[in-house]
Specification:
The complex is a heterodimer.
Chain A: H1 9-36, H2 43-64, H3 70-78, H4 80-112, H5 119-135, H6 138-156, H7 180-188, H8 190-193, H9 199-202, H10 212-238, H11 248-254, E1 257-258, E2 262-263, H12 266-295, H13 305-315, H14 323-332, H15 334-362
Antiparallel strand pairs in A: 1-2
Chain B: H1 2-16, E1 28-38, E2 44-51, H2 53-58, E3 70-77, H3 80-89, E4 94-96, E5 102-105, H4 107-112, H5 115-123, E6 132-136, H6 141-144, H7 154-163, H8 172-180, E7 185-193, E8 208-217, E9 220-225, H9 227-236, E10 245-248, E11 255-272, E12 275-291, H10 300-329, H11 336-343, H12 345-351, H13 355-358, E13 363-374
Parallel strand pairs in B: 1-4, 1-5, 5-6, 6-7, 12-13
Antiparallel strand pairs in B: 1-2, 2-3, 7-8, 8-9, 10-11, 11-12
Helix pairs in contact in B: 9-10, 11-12
Chain lengths: 363, 391
């Protein structure tokens, strides 16, 4: 066992919520809005179905192989060679994904808040902090997540000051072009909701094993509700023009004014968002380094955290010349690719495991 | 352990110092308003009004108050982005756009299209989505050089003018939504320099005031509405304040005037065969503020009778303006298109590309429901012998 820490189910929820929405709120509204137009507020509902499904798969697999991560049980399910190939693929998937997250984070900060600072400064900054948290183990991540997530969500409550500016009529006509655009928009969410497969790496460290499914489902529900609220605000404040923007949520945050004189506090919200993003990067980095250590049968995953960070900085620039390419990737590749790796392949694993179990029971 | 901590602390110092974006306050030129003009030769000129922080803090140091607390600089080039970089060369400090909430377009630019400069404002990270747009009569730069007697600078005066007439306020966001939306039109408040005849004041010691609305079709100004028509537009935008309505009753001299205090408008689009009808239901109530006639307003019948007259008066006013928008400008600034789209999505698809042709054909029917709540402090006309009051 590489990790001896134990976390509670509540801590897991605190970890998972920013892990999905930290980068999700940046780009989901405009990408989903491009398909669903003025029906975009309902796309998270469609998208979350994949989330619930993924949590269920991860939980079922964990029930068959308690206290084990996918890296460990994939070998038992499909044999040594294929299992290790799958693990290798999964670990590299998460390493690559972490690189993308860091790219989205540093692109956002340099594009909106600190325009003259090189992006690599922010990549290095968040990676050092996250790496220190990851080296502390899952308990450290979980405890800092409780604080960071609370701050992140508390400042986001400032969005309610926008209520007076909302125009609900932008939601009409509902389902103008039928349900297909909404389903397409919901499909964009797959990339984020399928990330709930990360739970498969966290379930083994829960102190009360039977609460995993319920709190996993609860986390998915919270993420869905948060995205619903965000999409609703973006749509009713900016109308369909929001799809033109890269970061519509930042636009609506900038629009917050309280009583006409207390304004311009997007920086506070951005700073707390950085905390949320720290949780996201920590969880991903933790899963990537734990997975890699288990795959390579290392005695301690802490050794590879910093070397991995170095690789991640390179990966965050690898083959992404600019944000347009990044958004294009998030629109056209991610929904399918992420869904395949994190939902479809684990589903096959689950089927094979169940079939094997049945055969061994009958035989 | 101690050495480790020291290492970490040393490492933090370069990271926590605010990096490359660190700007000291004394290196910033805070812009309060910007005016964008099109010159005769087709070049774009940007003029910005900037704070002089010293003038605000010092108060009475013997400086000439008519100089104001701001100054204006300009930059000129073939497009706005280049003009701004030319402007920066004339300002020793770094231009700071974060506080700039007011953008004024000259009428020449408005007639030639505002899309190109607005693109920069929407794309650049500095300007905000809720910054306000105005169109000036004549050159926009002249609005910035005014020194208001009451406010600290003219941009502040403009902001306060729109503060309680929210229907007038047009933001960058509104322009973006309006011009890319169904109607492809938007209205922007029109401002002019208030000519003050006070002898003690110099001619520049005045403020810009709102003098109607500029109507934009696509991105070009197609016409302007005067004060009275602007009021009617405000009724259509469900945002009337500081308005008065006067009526003349039959066979009495003088007007009766009321201030509507609560207005509500409902749009009911309707399609009957090929006829597109927009039903407007306006309900308002208010108090009488002036009675020039000799009628006793304590009379129940007079009061009930007045309701109808007020209804007719408002109806005429709104109908005229709607007609002007439909026939003269063909600009749907009150979003009829969006309301049809919302109620009749299927029919809308057919006319979406030819809304220009359909909009003038839309029949507007107006129903007004007025309620005079109070005759004011007094019932019968003031200072009139009792026997001359008509019951």
């Amino acid at each position: 066992m590489l990790e001896k820490g134990r976390i509670s189910a509540l801590q897991m929820e605190f970890m998972m919520v920013p892990t999905i929405i930290a980068t999700g709120v940046l780009s989901i509204p405009s990408i989903a809005g491009r398909f669903a137009r003025h029906d975009m507020w309902m796309t998270p509902i469609i998208g979350s179905l994949i989330g619930f499904f993924t949590v269920y798969i991860a939980w079922k697999l964990h029930q068959l192989f308690p206290r084990q991560t996918p890296i460990q049980y994939s070998e038992q399910i499909v044999g040594k060679v294929i299992g290790r190939l799958f693990s290798l693929f999964l670990v590299f998937f998460y390493i690559h994904d972490t690189g993308l997250i860091i790219r989205q984070y540093s692109d956002f900060i340099t594009g909106n808040v600190m325009l003259e600072t090189p992006a690599v400064v922010f990549s290095i900054g968040i990676l050092i902090v996250s790496a220190l948290a990851v080296r502390g183990g899952i308990e450290v991540i979980a405890r800092s997540a409780v604080i960071c997530t609370t701050l992140f969500l508390c400042t986001s409550v400032a969005l309610i000051f926008l209520i007076k500016d909302l125009d609900v009529s932008y939601m009409l006509p509902i389902l103008e072009n039928g349900p297909l655009p909404v389903i397409k928009g919901g499909f964009v969410h797959n990339a984020w909701f399928s990330e709930f497969f990360l739970l498969a790496f966290i379930f083994p460290f829960l102190n009360s094993q039977n609460k995993g499914l319920k709190s996993g489902m609860k986390a998915t529900l919270y993420v869905m509700l948060l995205l619903l609220v965000v999409n609703f605000f973006v749509l009713t404040l900016l109308g369909v023009s929001s799809v033109n923007q890269f970061y519509p949520v930042f636009s609506i945050v900038r629009a917050i004014t309280v009583l006409g004189f207390f304004e311009n506090f997007e920086i506070i919200i951005t700073a707390s968002w950085v905390l949320g993003n720290f949780v996201k990067v920590s969880v991903f980095l933790y899963v990537a380094s734990l997975g890699l250590a288990q795959l390579l049968r290392l005695s301690d995953y802490r050794l590879i955290v910093f070397p991995l960070c170095l690789l991640l900085i390179l990966l965050s620039y690898w083959d992404i010349p600019n944000i347009v390419v990044l958004v294009d990737y998030m629109t056209k590749v991610q929904p399918f690719y992420f869904l395949l790796v994190q939902t479809v392949l684990p589903l096959f694993l689950l089927f094979i495991a169940l079939a094997r179990k049945k055969r061994s029971e009958s035989g | 352990m101690k050495r480790k901590l020291l290492c970490i602390m040393c490492f933090c110092f370069p990271l926590l110092s605010g990096c490359w974006d660190r700007v000291e306050l004394q290196d910033l030129a805070i812009i309060t308003a910007a005016a964008i003009d099109r010159m005769e030769d087709g070049e774009i000129q940007i003029s910005v009004q900037m704070f002089i922080p010293r003038a605000i803090t010092s108060g009475q140091t013997g400086e000439d108050p008519s100089l104001g607390s701001t100054f204006v600089r300009e930059g000129k080039a073939e497009n706005l982005a280049k003009a701004i970089s030319m402007l920066q060369m004339n300002v020793p400090r770094k231009l700071f756009w974060g506080q700039c909430k007011i953008y004024i377009f000259g009428s020449e630019l408005a007639k030639n299209g505002i899309r190109k400069p607005v693109d920069l404002l929407a794309r650049h990270p500095g300007p905000r989505g809720n910054s306000m747009f105005f169109v000036s009569k004549g050159k926009a730069k002249n609005m910035l050089t005014l020194v208001p007697p009451l406010e600290r600078y003219s941009a502040e005066a403009l902001r306060k003018l729109t503060e309680d007439e929210l229907g007038l306020l047009t933001t960058l966001r509104d322009v973006d939504i309006g011009l890319m939306g169904e109607s492809e039109s938007v209205s922007i408040p029109l401002i002019k320099k208030l000519v003050s005849k006070e002898e003690a004041r110099k001619s520049h010691e005045t403020i810009p005031v709102i003098d109607g609305m500029a109507v934009f079709k696509k991105d070009k100004m197609v016409g302007t509405l005067n004060q009275k028509e602007t009021r009617a537009i405000l009724w259509l935008k469900d945002d009337v304040k500081n308005s008065t309505i006067s009526i003349k009753l039959q066979d009495v001299d003088g007007d009766i005037t009321m201030t509507p205090s609560l207005g509500k408008i409902k749009f009911r689009p309707q399609i009957k065969g090929n006829r597109w009808i927009m039903n407007l239901n306006i309900a308002f109530e208010g108090d009488i503020v002036q009675n020039e006639t000799n009628l006793n307003l304590m009379n129940k019948e007079v009061m009930m009778n007045m309701n109808k007259e007020f209804e007719a008066a408002l109806k005429e006013r709104v109908a005229q303006t709607a007609e002007k928008l439909q026939q003269e400008f063909n600009a749907d600034v009150v979003n009829f298109g969006r309301r049809f789209h919302q109620k009749y999505p299927k029919e809308w698809k057919k006319v979406r590309n030819s809304w220009d042709e359909k909009f003038p054909e839309v029949e507007v029917t107006i129903n007004v429901h007025a309620k005079v709540r109070r005759p004011g402090y007094i019932g019968p006309p003031v200072a009139l012998p009792r026997d001359e009051v008509r019951e």
